[in-house]
């Protein structure tokens, strides 16, 4: 397979100014797939200059014209699925089925924002009702300028598309900074941009480390807006940097999301959704429902069924169709998750499934799906994001207790609720302190619904019309109604 390994700046594949490279690893085998350019501040400078040059023409196009490019990107992703899916599995370790789900989300995202770009014209110049006949005022929405888009490794092309599609729709020109762990899939966007004829400089891609190129991009005075997905620790640093020049920031950060199962739940369906919420993508999901709260009367029965289901999850080569869980994406993450499991064994919790690396797998970052019960409320296992296939379980007696436990977190990304009681669904939907509540089902994602969190899970919303608004400035034109003189 041929890989793009250079930087994509001003419509061209170019070498970095300082000739550095980074190794890209296959997490299932620990082999080096290839090396990619390690960009530095000088490359960030080139990319920002290219984006600034391209901005006036791009933002002057009609929404319909920009929408046309987005539609063609959506189609190009569909047409390249045979290449993108295995590439994603190779570099990230997710199964082929998970990679296919990602590519469909990406394509749907570009198609959705193509439509919103086209509709932008209808939102322009709408009159505002004023409490005065002496004046009229109209609203305009304008591009936020040059946007820096910084993304992580767990859903690489998905998180990128959730930023890139609305940014381009809004008339922003962009610099994408992929994760240094999974850059190969984002580099494909350079070829797609050329194929669909995107004007040079509208999309620039700089690969490299957070310190090497991410930080200089955030500090650059030529960047007007930052949109970041990643850890809360990096997000707070980026917010502090953005404050220096009062840049707009959108942050999609970590989580420790609760799943609440009540005694009227169907056990088999509940177990399926619980497993999907923590073991999909090997648990490397910001929205992983990693804290499970089960009503005491069904606790033993549900736990038995859960442990049995977990024993049936096949972990292994993500290219094998029967495999449900691939490796973790990096050595770093593998070490972090194993250390969190070791700590969990010391904290007073009971290990009921998994508990370490996969026996017999000599190479690759494979971890067993792991379940702890009776997890102490003050333990790291209960409070901190692990970002791996590790579930912490507790029993509760009443709805009030379950709600208090669910909300007792510095995070607030999502929550799952399984119950047949309509009144309870209404109460919990209103009082759970999270950005998205999933009721009686898996975490199905739709580009039409918002994504983002309360509390330390982030600032702003992606997807839906809210995702577009993150990249638009609002302007009013207010005129006196009387003729001069
Ligand atoms: P990370 O914060 O380490 O890195 C994310 C990106 O930021 C990478 O591209 C990295 O190179 C870059 N970066 C690092 N330091 C930087 C700096 N000082 N300035 C600019 N850029 C910098 O996160 P990660 O380990 O790649 O991803 C895992 C985290 O992402 C988890 O905490 C997870 O919850 C979160 N996440 C959140 C969402 C969401 O939608 N809320 C989605 C996916 C992942």
Describe the model:
By secondary structure, the chain is α/β, with parallel strands linked by helices. The protein has two domains: 7-253 and 458-476, Aldehyde Dehydrogenase, Chain A, domain 1, CATH 3.40.605; 258-446, Aldehyde Dehydrogenase, Chain A, domain 2 (3-Layer(aba) Sandwich), CATH 3.40.309. It has helices at residues 41-60, 63-79, 81-92, 96-123, 156-170, 184-195, 210-219, 232-244, 267-279, 299-311, 331-346, 380-383, 399-407, 422-431, 464-469; strands spanning 7-9, 12-14, 21-25, 32-37, 126-128, 135-143, 146-150, 173-177, 203-205, 225-229, 248-252, 258-261, 291-295, 350-353, 370-373, 390-396, 411-412, 414-418, 436-439, 454-455, 458-459, 472-480. Strands 14-15-16-13-12-18-19 form a seven-stranded mixed beta sheet, sandwiched between helices. It has a six-stranded mixed beta sheet with strand order 9-8-7-10-11-21, sandwiched between helices. It has a three-stranded antiparallel beta sheet with strand order 5-6-22. Strand 12 (258-261), helix 9 and strand 13 (291-295) form a beta-alpha-beta unit. Helix 1 crosses helix 7, helix 2 (63-79) runs antiparallel to helix 5 (156-170) and helix 4 packs parallel to helix 5. It is globular, with a radius of gyration of 23 Å. The termini are far apart. 52% of the residues are buried. The mean pLDDT is 97. Nicotinamide-adenine-dinucleotide (NAD) is lined by residues 150-155, 159, 177, 179-180, 209-210, 214-215, 218, 229-231, 234, 237-238, 252-255, 286, 385, 387, 413, 457-458.
